[in-house]
Amino acid sequence: MHLLGPWMTTTSYKKRKQKITKTGMMRYQTEHADFNRRMKREGRHQEQLTLEQYIDYTCGKLKLNTSQPKVQAQPAPRTYRRETEEIPSLGIGVGVATKGQDKVYTGTKIKGIGTMHKSNAVPIFSDDEAKEISKMRRG
What we know:
Elements: H1 22-41, H2 51-59, E1 112-115, E2 121-124, H3 127-138
Antiparallel strand pairs: 1-2
């Protein structure tokens, strides 16, 4: 008998399916309950699974239908066109009111300008303020 390569074998390379143990089944049941609870909270009721479907899903035999909702493109709205070609302007009539006088400071309230610190100019409105500023400068 001659020697043949590894492609000629009497045993199978296929992995056998392992049976789920009792502890494994208990773990699947708790995970399944958590999965369904989470789907319910997220408002994805249609994605809840039975226990058998959940086991197939975790083993990779079942894929969830996670297709995105189909969005239909809306046609572009028609642009509005005015029927009249030209709109007459308001005209050059007289305005609503006359312009008020500009506010100009006359200088009647201010008595003078004092120096508080270095070259800091401060307006003086009364004699009391002038005395106060002079006392501040001297310390």
